[in-house]
């Protein structure tokens, strides 16, 4: 790992921590009074700051990812290269943003479940390992973009719902589902098949890592389908 990479990770951890604590300490009281978090029992200021920081991270990560990878996606056959090669500087920047946020987020998140702990730990280990050795399967940066693509919509949904803005929350919910199913679940399955079953260059360790990550996505997809079922059939029963 380059000294520059360590500096980037620490800089982004400080950046996201600064966003969190600015909102947490200086948000006006009238906004805090109107904020009623629906999915967390942590202190209201801390929960609001967590939502805002997560929204900022997702927006930055997706913007940087599209800037790096969209020309490649549009101009090259998708997932053509299966080789194990050196990590480029733009992908190293993506990893630094992700690792900085994950490290910072672990210091203020409330109502943590074992799956959430595992998600944070696995993310730091996987992308930290790749950044440390500067290795890339021509997938790591694209994987970050795929993983973060639905996050701005879900964080906006949480914010709107916590401020009792039901219509904007429902719109964000629809956008989130429309992004999650084809991008997060669909492309992740495609990448998992591509690298696990059809690539000779992929070491067994990385095959297991990709499979475990895809299983986590599948678990969350099942929860999303459960939400859709309750929304659609629950309303029908009420009528």
Major pleated sheet:
2 strands, antiparallel
SSE string, helices as H and strands as E: HHHEHHEHHHH
Residue-averaged pLDDT: 83
- Cα Rg: 19 Å
Intertermini distance: 60 Å
Q: pLDDT below 50 for ≥5 consecutive residues: which ranges?
A: none
- Specify the helix fraction band: over 70%
Question: Shape from CA axes?
Answer: globular
Structural class: mainly alpha
Count of helical stretches: 9
**Tally of DSSP β-strands:** 2
Q: Report the portion of residues in β strands.
A: under 5%
Which sequence of strands runs across the widest sheet? Answer: 1-2
Description:
With 239 residues, the chain is an all-alpha fold. It has helices at 3-26, 29-34, 44-75, 89-105, 114-133, 140-148, 151-162, 166-197, 204-238, and strands spanning 85-86, 135-136. A two-stranded antiparallel sheet has the order 1-2. Helix 1 (3-26) crosses helix 4 (89-105), helix 3 crosses helix 6 and helix 7 (151-162) packs antiparallel against helix 8 (166-197). The protein is globular. The model has no long low-confidence stretch (mean pLDDT 83).
Helices, strands, pairings?
Layout: H1 3-26, H2 29-34, H3 44-75, E1 85-86, H4 89-105, H5 114-133, E2 135-136, H6 140-148, H7 151-162, H8 166-197, H9 204-238
Antiparallel strand pairs: 1-2
Quickly describe the structure.
This protein is mostly helical. Helices cover 78% and strands 2% of the residues.
């Amino acid at each position: 790992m380059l000294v520059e990479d360590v500096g980037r990770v620490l800089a982004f951890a400080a950046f996201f921590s600064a966003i969190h604590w600015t909102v947490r300490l200086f948000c006006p009281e009238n906004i805090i009074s109107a904020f009623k978090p629906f999915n967390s029992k942590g202190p209201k200021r801390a929960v609001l700051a967590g939502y805002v920081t997560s929204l900022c991270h997702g927006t930055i990560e997706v913007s940087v990812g599209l800037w790096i990878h969209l020309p490649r996606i549009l101009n090259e056959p998708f997932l053509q290269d299966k080789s194990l090669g050196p990590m480029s500087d733009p992908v190293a920047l993506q990893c630094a943003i992700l690792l900085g946020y994950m490290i910072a987020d672990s210091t203020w998140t409330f109502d943590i479940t074992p799956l959430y702990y595992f998600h944070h730990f696995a993310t730091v280990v996987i992308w930290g390992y790749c950044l440390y050795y500067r290795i890339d399967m021509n997938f790591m940066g694209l994987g970050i973009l795929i993983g973060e693509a639905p996050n701005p919509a879900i964080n906006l949904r949480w914010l709107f719902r916590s401020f009792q803005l039901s219509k904007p929350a429902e719109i964000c919910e629809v956008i989130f589902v429309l992004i999650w199913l084809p991008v997060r679940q669909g492309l992740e399955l495609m990448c998992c098949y591509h690298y696990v079953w059809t690539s000779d260059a992929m070491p067994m360790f990385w095959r297991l890592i990709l499979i475990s990550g895809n299983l986590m996505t599948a678990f969350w997809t099942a929860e999303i389908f459960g939400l859709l079922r309750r929304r659609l059939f629950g309303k029908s029963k009420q009528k």
